[in-house]
Amino acid sequence: MLRSKIDRLYEIHPGERVCQGDIFRNVDFEVVTEEKVIENGYPYVVVISQDCDLQFGVTKEDNSELNGELRLSHQFLPNILFLPAFLAEHVRSGEHLEDLYGIKQEHINSTDWKLIKQNRNERYHYLPSYLDFQIPELAIDFKHYFSLPTESSIVRQLNNSYLATVNELFREDLSRRFSNYLSRIPLPEVQ
Q1: Mean of the pLDDT values across residues 18-34?
Q2: Cβ proximity of 41 and 83 under 8 Å
Q3: What pLDDT, on the 0 to 100 scale, is given for residue 58?
Q4: Residue 19: inside a domain
């Protein structure tokens, strides 16, 4: 029996489509609200949508008509979910949200930072650097995520900023940790 050997955190794929675990650099987009247009940009993002959903995309063959109504197949994924990845030093210093939201958080002490680097803090996920693929030390803050339409021009341009992909076992761990964070049971504040 052949067994796959996953001996690295990151890999490169041919870039035929967006895949779960893909890391992109300098992703800029606009958010349109009733009051204004907000320009948003992240230095790094990681695709968190499940790869089984991403591999099909939307093609005309996927669509079918029923009584004159267009029906999309069960493979249709209208949006791709992304996690912003911030420079680890900015997360530790509490500066990672300053440019986006004007919010400065507290500096993370050495004990807590050690837990983050070991991925034992439920809110953050740490990705070590891999300079061969131009990936610096990154930290993902699970409180921040966004989606973009699958068929948007931004998604079509992502290949220009592709760096690498988080390998299978590691991206499953990232996905599991993110979903656990989102599904946590809130505790009431103690007064």
Answers
A1: 85
A2: no
A3: 45
A4: yes
